[in-house]
Design brief:
Glucose Oxidase, domain 3, 26% helix, 16 helices, 6-stranded antiparallel β-sheet, alpha/beta, single chain, 7-stranded mixed β-sheet
C-alpha cells in the first residue's frame, strides 16, 4: 500500500504529468469543469523573447532553459550512422530537441498548425469502434480550439467571399490563435516575391492549376480535400504577432479558476504509485534541471532580460522528493520518449526488459516503447548571388542588453508585426508522391535560410548565411514502424535509449518511404530551378554530385531526419497484444491511468503532429468528463 497523502494540498481529483499539447489543454478543460487538477512539469516557466517571437523558433529549441536535448540513433549500424553529417560522436546520436518548459514542446516547435487530414483517423475508428475518432469529429474539435486571425484565401472562380468562408469552416472563438504571414510582408523583400512566385509556378506546372484559380490555397479550410495538391499558405500558432500554445491556455485558465488548477514546475515525475491495480498518484523529484537531457548552460538572454526568471538561490542540485495523489485518475502526457520511460519505471512494459533491470512487473505490456516512428525530412539548399537586402543591418537574433537593437526586432517590440511575427517560412507546396495511398503525403516549405536538420548550434548557423534559399521536404504517412524506446537503467533522470531504425533497418514499407522522400526532393529542385529571378547561383545541399535517383536515395538514406516522433504507447484493438491503450486512452491491465500525448498514435495523422495532439487532448477531455461529470 502506498503511503497516505501527507495533507489535503497533496490530493487532487486528477494528476496530469506534462504540460504540452496533450496534457496542457486536458488539464485546463478538467479544471474549467470544476475538478481539482495538478499539472506537474519537469521544466520551469522560463519566459524570454526566444519563446515569444515567432521567427526565433530555432533559437527557442536550443535555449538551455527551455529545451531538452535528446540524442537519438537513426541507425543501429555504427558505420551508417556515422555517415550522417548531423551525427554527434560525443553523444553517439543525432540531436532531437524537445520542449522542457511550461507548455512542453509547444514552446519550441516551428508553430505550424495544420489540420491533420488523412486516413489515419478512419483507422482509429475501425480499431476502437468509436465514430468520435472520425475526421469530421476531429474537424469540429479543431474549430472549437481555433481562433483564426489570418487573411483568408482568395475565393475560387464563381465563389463569393461569404461562400468561401462558409466552406472553410474556420473557428474564431477558440483558445489557440492561428494566422498566416500577412501577404503585405512579402513585397518588402523582392526576392521573397521571386521565391513565392517559384513555388506558385512549380505548383501550376506540375498539377495543371489554371491561372484563374488563385494561389495559395488554405490547407486548413474544410473544403480542402486530403488529396489536395498545390500551393498553400502556412497556418501558424501565432496570436497577435506572438507565439501561443498550451502555456497561455494553462495560465489563462489558472487565472480564471484559481485553486482548482495547480501548476508545479521543476518537478520530474519518477514513477506512478498504485493501490493494488489502481493508479493513485505519482512520486516526483522537486529539482531544477533534474533530467539528464537538460543541456549545460543557460539562456543567453537571461542577464537583464525583462521577465526572465532569476537564477535560483542556493544549490541548483538540491533535491526534494514528494508524492501527489489523485482521487480520480492519473494522466501521463510526457511525450513519446518520457511516457514509455515512466510506464516502464512503474512496472508496465515488456516483461524481459523489466526483468533485465530488476523492475517488479506490474503489467507485461510488450507494446510499451515499440512502434516508434516519425516522418522523414530532407532539404534542398541553394546559394543566391547576394544577401537579402531585408536582412541588412540585422543580427537575426535577439540582442543582449548592451547590444544595439535592429529595426526588425524594434518593429516586433513596438507593434508585434513585421517579418519577426512569422515563423520564417515563405510558402508551401503540398503534393502526392508516387507511393501515396491517395492522400497527399508531401509538404515542401520554402524559406530564406539554410535548414538541413538538427545538430548543436544549428539555429545560429542558419542565420549566418544571408544568401540562402532552402526548401524542406516532409514525407508524411510513412510506413516504417521499427523504432523503439528502451530503458538504459532504473534511474529516472537518465534519458532512455532511442533508436528509430531508419529505412532498411525498419519494417516493411521503408522502400516506399525512401521513394516518396526522393520524389519530394525532385519537386524541391523544381522550385529552386524556377527561382532564377531570385539570383540562384548554385545548389549546396545535396549538391551537384547527387543527381540520379539512386544517388538521391543514398544521400537521403543517411542525411534525412524527423521531428514528429510518436507511437510508443499506442491505441489498438482489444485482441492486439502490442496495443498499450484502449480507445479512451486507458492503460490496459491497470485502472485509473491514461496516456494523452503523441505516443498514443498507431500512425501519425496528417502532415504535422502538434495539431493532432491538440485534438487527442480534446477527445480525451470528453472521455474523462463523460466518466467524471462536472463537479
Amino acid at each position: 500500500m502506498p503511503q497516505q497523502p501527507p495533507g489535503t494540498t497533496q490530493e487532487f481529483d486528477f494528476v496530469v504529468v506534462g504540460s504540452g499539447a496533450g496534457g496542457g489543454p486536458l488539464a485546463a478543460n478538467l479544471a474549467l469543469a470544476g475538478h481539482r487538477v495538478l499539472v506537474l512539469e519537469a521544466g520551469d516557466e522560463h519566459d524570454c523573447r526566444y519563446y515569444s517571437i515567432p521567427i526565433m523558433q530555432g533559437f527557442a529549441s536550443e535555449d538551455p532553459d527551455m529545451a531538452w536535448n535528446f540524442f537519438v540513433r537513426h541507425w543501429d549500424d555504427a558505420a551508417t550512422q556515422r555517415e550522417d553529417l548531423k551525427f554527434t560522436g560525443a553523444e553517439d546520436g543525432v540531436l532531437y530537441p524537445r520542449g522542457s518548459s511550461l507548455g512542453g514542446s509547444t514552446t519550441v516547435n516551428a508553430l505550424i498548425m495544420l489540420f491533420p487530414q488523412g486516413r489515419e483517423w478512419q483507422r482509429l475508428v475501425e480499431l476502437t469502434g468509436d465514430a468520435g475518432w472520425s475526421a469530421e469529429a476531429m474537424r469540429e474539435r479543431f474549430r472549437r480550439l481555433e481562433n483564426w486571425q489570418g487573411q483568408d484565401a482568395e475565393p475560387l472562380p464563381g465563389e463569393t467571399p461569404a461562400e468561401r468562408d462558409a466552406k472553410a469552416r474556420h473557428g474564431t472563438r477558440g483558445w489557440l490563435g492561428t494566422t498566416r504571414a500577412a501577404p503585405p510582408l512579402a513585397p518588402r523583400e523582392p526576392r521573397f516575391l521571386d521565391i513565392i512566385g517559384a513555388v506558385e509556378r512549380t505548383a501550376r506546372d506540375r498539377f495543371g492549376i489554371p491561372d484563374d484559380v488563385p494561389l495559395p490555397r488554405d490547407p486548413n479550410a474544410a473544403d480542402t480535400p486530403p488529396d489536395f495538391e498545390g500551393m498553400a499558405f502556412i497556418p501558424a500558432s501565432v496570436d497577435q504577432g506572438a507565439r501561443n500554445g498550451t502555456r497561455e491556455r494553462l495560465l489563462d485558465v489558472r487565472h480564471r479558476v484559481g485553486d482548482l488548477l495547480t501548476i508545479r514546475t521543476n518537478t520530474l515525475v519518477t514513477r506512478v504509485l498504485f493501490d493494488g491495480d489502481r493508479a493513485v498518484g505519482v512520486a516526483y523529484r522537486d529539482q531544477r534541471r533534474a533530467y539528464g537531457a537538460s543541456p549545460d548552460g543557460t539562456c543567453r538572454l537571461r542577464p537583464g532580460e525583462p521577465g526572465a526568471m532569476e537564477e535560483p538561490d542556493g544549490d541548483e542540485a538540491a533535491v526534494a522528493e514528494g508524492t501527489a495523489y489523485a482521487t480520480k485518475e492519473v494522466v501521463l502526457a510526457g511525450g513519446t520518449y518520457n511516457t514509455p520511460q515512466l510506464l516502464m519505471l512503474s512496472g508496465i512494459g515488456p516483461l524481459e526488459e523489466l526483468q533485465r533491470l530488476g523492475i517488479p512487473v506490474r503489467v507485461d505490456a510488450p507494446g510499451v516503447g515499440r512502434n516508434l516512428h516519425d516522418r522523414y525530412e530532407a532539404s534542398v539548399v541553394a546559394e543566391l548571388d547576394e544577401d537579402y537586402p531585408l536582412f541588412e543591418g540585422s543580427s537575426l537574433n535577439v540582442p543582449l542588453p548592451d547590444e544595439e537593437q535592429d529595426e526588425l526586432i524594434t518593429e516586433w517590440d513596438t507593434d508585434r508585426a513585421g517579418p519577426y511575427a512569422t515563423n520564417g517560412q515563405l510558402a508551401a507546396l503540398i503534393a502526392r508522391s508516387s507511393v501515396s495511398d491517395g492522400d497527399s503525403d508531401l509538404m515542401l516549405l520554402a524559406m530564406p535560410l539554410d535548414f538541413h536538420g538538427y545538430y548543436p548550434g544549428y539555429a545560429e548557423e542558419a542565420t549566418e548565411g544571408r544568401d540562402r534559399l532552402g526548401v524542406v521536404v516532409l514525407k508524411g504517412h510513412t510506413r516504417n514502424r521499427g523504432g523503439s524506446v528502451t530503458l538504459r537503467s532504473t534511474d529516472p533522470t537518465e534519458p532512455p535509449e532511442i533508436r528509430f531504425r531508419y529505412f532498411s533497418e525498419g519494417t516493411p514499407g521503408w522502400e516506399e518511404d525512401l521513394d516518396g522522400l526522393v520524389d519530394g526532393l525532385r519537386i524541391a529542385r523544381d522550385v529552386v530551378a524556377n527561382a532564377g529571378q531570385a539570383g540562384v547561383r548554385r545548389e549546396l545541399v545535396p549538391g551537384p554530385g547527387v543527381r540520379t535517383d539512386d544517388q538521391l536515395k543514398e544521400w537521403a538514406r543517411t542525411q534525412s531526419w524527423g521531428h514528429h516522433a510518436c507511437g510508443t504507447a499506442r491505441i489498438g484493438a482489444g485482441d492486439d497484444d502490442l496495443a498499450v491503450l484502449d480507445g479512451d486512452f486507458r492503460v490496459r491491465g491497470v485502472r485509473g491511468l491514461r496516456v494523452v500525448d503523441a505516443s498514443v498514435f498507431p500512425d501519425i495523422p496528417g502532415l504535422f503532429i502538434a495539431s493532432a495532439v491538440y485534438l487527442v487532448s480534446e477527445k480525451a477531455s470528453e472521455a474523462l468528463l463523460a466518466e467524471y461529470p462536472a463537479a
